[in-house]
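pinned: reference chain
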Amino acid sequence: MVLVSTRNPLNMGAVARAMSNFGVFHLRVVDPYEVAFRRAKSAVGASELLANAEEFSSVADAVADCALVVGTTAVGPREVQHPVRSLEDGARVIRRKLAPAKVALLFGSEKYGLSNNDMSHCHWLMRIPTRAEHRSMNLGQAAAICLYELVRKGRPGGPIERKPVANAAEVERITTVLFDVLRFTRYWNPGSSKSTEEKVRRLIRRLHLEKGDAEVLLGMLRQVLWKVNVDSKK
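pinned: its structure tokens
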């Protein structure tokens, strides 16, 4: 579980309690609003889990070792650039992935949810089917519902995929080199459009690269970058 820019320590404690209820014990937090969250009294029976939460300064670092990154959203009026799965469908995919690899489930701040940049690190999104007139939910409740759906048909696990998939850090390395190539070829100007960067990051994640394929693609891009650098110096 990854909590991004959460503001209320009580909500963070409620998430930890839900995690303990359903047997999920790895909590990561990105840029939390207050350090005091580690002492939240709402983490009934899960104070140790909360105390051991790992802190990160960015989503990229928090999900670096994960092969699947799933965001949560209420959708609403915003335009979402990702596939959005139902809880049941999303939980089925997550259970299958959890056998051979780590999966990150992201929740955004209580006020704004996940930003577009946060979502650009996700492969796809899940939403709880709340009514349109009142979409948002308390963070602890939302986490509990998602975790319940994940375990209600048995503990995570399933057929192990034959080939390991690239984790988020490996995929981000490909994205970084691709950005360098795009910059040198003048396809992309880093200062011109943040949406282009997010679009490229989403595109790479939709490929669901296997580890071996990721290494090949990274080597190809580095070779292209080297060639572009050489030519630019002539």
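why pinned: The chain has nine helices and seven strands. Residues 81 and 202 are 8 Å apart (CA to CA).
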